[in-house]
Amino acid sequence: MNIRLLLAACCFLAATACVRQPAFKGPNSAFLRSSYPIVELNGEGIDPAYRLDIPAGKTSAVIVYHTYRHDYNCTFAWIAEAGTVYEVTNQWNRYPLTLYRWERKNSLWASRLEPADPVDCKRQAAIKDAAAE
Amino acid sequence: MSLRRNKTLLLLLLTQAAATTETNADVLPGLSQLSDSIVRESVIAFVNTTVSPGLEGATLTVDDGSRLSDQWRSSLGFAAEYTINKHVFNGYWGLALVGGSLNDKVELVSDDGVPVQLDLTRDVVALRGSYGLSFPITEHFRLRPYLSLSVSDLRNEIRVDGLVSTTPVASPSTTVVFNTSAWMYSTTGSLDALYSRWFGENRLELSAHYNLIYTDAFSEDNPVLETTAWNDVLQLKSRYSGPTNMTSLGRKWRWMVYANHVNFLSQDKLSLGYTSLFEFGAGMEWRMNIKPFDWFGWQMLGLKAGVITSNDVEGYSVGLTAR
């Protein structure tokens, strides 16, 4: 019985620790997380990253969505608000990738709000090992 | 009257005792039409038409003159893809609690030509887990191979009216009732081919799903149910959806219509009275778009209603959908 209670307590603790708000670098920072590599931020090429602190304000980012036949370089442009988390993911929407405002609702789930399409997505033939960039 | 009841009870007890050690022909003497293989195939078919991945809730009625059966299935579960950083492919998982029931009334003829009414009730509760990968071939097309394991608790009640007993009783015809149970372990290899394309604000989705199922059954009270079987199922699904002006909690609703076909490829029609189903319906979907455990996306919560039809089978499907 004690083992069951312990297991239940562990499961509860694990579940409630799932959704965490990322730490911001400063009061004028926002946070960008992506399921696919971010390769360009505000016009400058960067090493592929999946999580980035970004300055609040006018922001642009290029994120690459990989398939086995094509790569899609999708450019997003938006005004990032300080203390806000943004998330880019693929949900089989009209464009390969969609930008959401990510909001922690509680310790069990987060919400994806205010979907925004990319400015454009440039398709090119898939580069071998592109995903491992 | 009391004597007859006692003798019927005696026959019932004898039958149950026989079920623990003998074949179906011994359990139901004089009913060789109902072979062991037919019973096994019927049990496996019922479990497969309830538990197979990709099947949604349904209520079915088969009426072909000599057979009248009602079957329902329902599931509470979820399946989703999640991205794996630094890989082109995504992960895929699913978990579902599935339940179903079958009441099957069949008219048979005993070995000496007497009509016999067979009344079967089967109930199953199953837990199914799936895991696999999803390979995006293009922006619009992806392949998803995955493996599912399910464990099913099956309960049967079999009632036979009109069987001429070999046991000396007051009346030549009597009623035999016996209960059996089995644990069914199924391993399913699935391959899904999924296509999605947007036309303005409207979205077309087409998919084909092939399931290859290996079932291993264990029964402590009926050796007839100790069996293994290979089966396969093909499902073809289509869905067309579009926007509405409705919103709830700031989230939009979308309408959708769908048409599905499921073909239980290796199933004998004798098992359940059907081998394929067509379903047409419509519904509404609410774009809730949350991310449980900050792990996978849960985009839609919907309500749908549809009609099911095929040769000798009619039915309907009403329920919640989540994806």
Rg of chain B (CA only): 23 Å
Q: How is the quaternary structure best described?
A: heterodimer
* Dominant shape of chain A: globular
Strand content of chain A: over 45%
Characteristic terms for this protein:
heterodimer; A: 133 residues; mainly beta; eight-stranded mixed β-sheet; 1 helix; globular; B: 323 residues; Lipocalin; twelve-stranded antiparallel barrel; 4 helices; disordered N terminus
What this model shows, in words?
The complex is a heterodimer of chains A (133) and B (323). By secondary structure, chain A is mainly beta. Chain A has one helix spanning 2-16; strands at 29-41, 44-55, 57-66, 70-80, 85-89, 98-104, 109-116, 120-125. Chain A has one domain. In chain A, strands 1, 2, 3, 4, 5, 6, 7 and 8 form an 8-stranded mixed β-sheet that branches. In chain A, a hairpin with a 4-residue loop joins β6 and β7 (109-116). The longest helix of chain A has 15 residues, at 2-16. The N and C termini of chain A lie far apart (49 Å). The model of chain A has no long low-confidence stretch (mean pLDDT 87). The model of chain B is unreliable at 1-23 (pLDDT under 50). Chain B contains 4 helices and 12 strands. In chain B, a hairpin with a 2-residue loop joins β8 (227-248) and β9 (251-264). Helices cover 13% and strands 65% of the residues of chain B. Chain B has a single domain (2-322), classed as Lipocalin (Beta Barrel), CATH 2.40.128. With 323 residues, chain B is mainly beta. At the A-B interface, β7 of A face β10 of B.
